[in-house]
Amino acid sequence: MSRSDSEVFLQQRQQQIISAAKNCFSRSGFHGASMADISHESGLGAGQIYRYYSSKEVIVSETIKSIAESWRMFLLKNLQLETTISNIIDTESDFWRDWSFRERCLLLEMYSEASRNKSVRALLVHEEQLLFTELEAIFKRQMPAATPEERSDRIQFLLMLVDGVACRTFGDKHLNQQELARINTLLAGYLFS
């Protein structure tokens, strides 16, 4: 096997393990899922897994990195599309279509872990800074007359709104459509003008 083939195989195995870990963690949480669960889910023996990751903590860390990066990329893609507040608020809308139930579970688990783990919190802060910088560039092109403070306020508000909706994703699915339309009208002029 050539060096490049070996690197590809390594990356495929690591991805296989992280994918299995995501399935396990979305069902049982970072602390509830065991290495045996990950081994069973991945179809690999524990010894094989330890060739690629030295401990469960490393798997958790790599999984969190993957979740955080996916979340950043999802938001970057969706927040630059023309959207409405009602699409952001409604978890069944097109805005959320590409963010699966499994990803929603993992996002909540990641935020929970960040509340008690400094390194996870630091990782999330880093990803949010990257997202903010990328959105700032997009908003600057879309809103050239706005001040940096206005753009920053809008970005912060959108991120809080999206995070709040993501965290309440398991709540009531029956939104009052009249109230949603009223909120959308109130906020649309502020956010998307």
Work out the number of β strands.
Answer: 0
How confident is the prediction overall: mean pLDDT?
87
Bulk shape: elongated
Low-confidence stretches: none
Q: Compute the CA-based radius of gyration.
A: 19 Å
Total of domains? 2
Q: Could you describe the largest sheet, including whether it forms a barrel? A: none
Oligomer designation:
single chain
> For the terminal residues, how far apart are their CA atoms?
57 Å
Query: In percent, how helical is the residue content?
Result: over 70%
Structural class: mainly alpha
Strand percentage lies at under 5%
SSE sequence, one letter per element: HHHHHHHHH
Q: Supply the number of helical segments.
A: 9
Description:
The chain has 193 residues and is mostly helical. The chain has two domains: 54 residues, Arc Repressor Mutant, subunit A, CATH 1.10.10; 132 residues. Helix content is 75%, strand content 0%. Helix 1 packs across helix 2. It is elongated and about 55 Å long.
Helices and strands in order, then pairings?
Layout: H1 3-28, H2 35-42, H3 46-52, H4 56-79, H5 85-89, H6 101-114, H7 118-142, H8 148-167, H9 177-191
Helix pairs in contact: 1-2, 1-4, 1-6, 4-6, 4-7, 6-7, 7-8
